[in-house]
Amino acid sequence: MRFVAIADTHDNLDAIRDLIDVLRGEKFDFVVHAGDIIAPFSMKALAGIKREMYIAFGNNDGEKKILTRIAEEKGWVLGDIVEFPNGVVYHGTDKKIIEILKKTVHKYLILGHTHEVKVEKFGEKIVINPGEVCGYLTGKRTFAIVEDENVDIIEF
Q1: If you ran DSSP here, which 8-state letter would residue 141 be given?
Q2: Which domains does the chain have, with CATH numbers?
Q3: Could you give the CA distance from residue 8 to residue 33 in angstroms, rounded to a whole number?
């Protein structure tokens, strides 16, 4: 299983288009988005990836009813905390929730919100924050490609 983890796209359509261009050259099974897509037009743009998606709502996501409708139309999974094959995605930073998820997740916990890249292994489990697609806070646009024990952070 090989998947792409992204977070914090924040309506940056140029970054989303660039991400889609980079991903055209990659083989992967699905995408996990750790929140803050923001607006429906950005979610529609993400459809250019043409893969199954597992998406956690972010604190800045507006129009949740429309985002939910788009996700349902695409067959994507969307919610506050979302399971995906061998993992869970969550946007927040609530320490109690993260600790519970660390205990219950099978393999991967994908987090967003901080915009900072982080890869932490504990036992057989891996916590990943892929950074930010938008590049607004750190000046770096990043995502992760995850396969087995390997997590590659890609700057684009």
Answers
A1: -
A2: 2-155 (3.60.21.10)
A3: 8
Q: Which single residue is written with the structure tokens 């390997």?
A: 150
The rounded Cα 99 to chain-centroid distance in angstroms is 19
CB 143 within 8 A of CB 131: yes
pLDDT the model gives residue 113: 98
CA dihedral 45, 142, 128, 6 (to 10 degrees): 0
Helix residue spans in the chain (DSSP H): 13-23, 40-46, 64-74, 95-104
Q: Hey, what amino acid is at 53? A: M
In this prediction, residue 63 has a pLDDT band, given cuts at 50, 70 and 90, of very high
Task: Determine the Cα–Cα distance for residues 73 and 120; give it in Å rounded to an integer.
Answer: 34
Task: Summarize the confidence of residues 13-21 as an average pLDDT.
Answer: 98
In angstroms, the Cα distances linking 102 to 23, 45, 111, 112, 121 are 28, 31, 11, 15, 11
Copy the structure tokens of residue 107: 């393999």
Q: State pLDDT tens for residues 38-57.
A: 999 999 999 999 999 999 99
Start-to-end CA distance of the chain, whole Å, equals: 23
Phi-psi map region of 107: left, alpha, beta (phi>0 left; psi -120 to 50 alpha):
alpha
pLDDT value of residue 150: 97
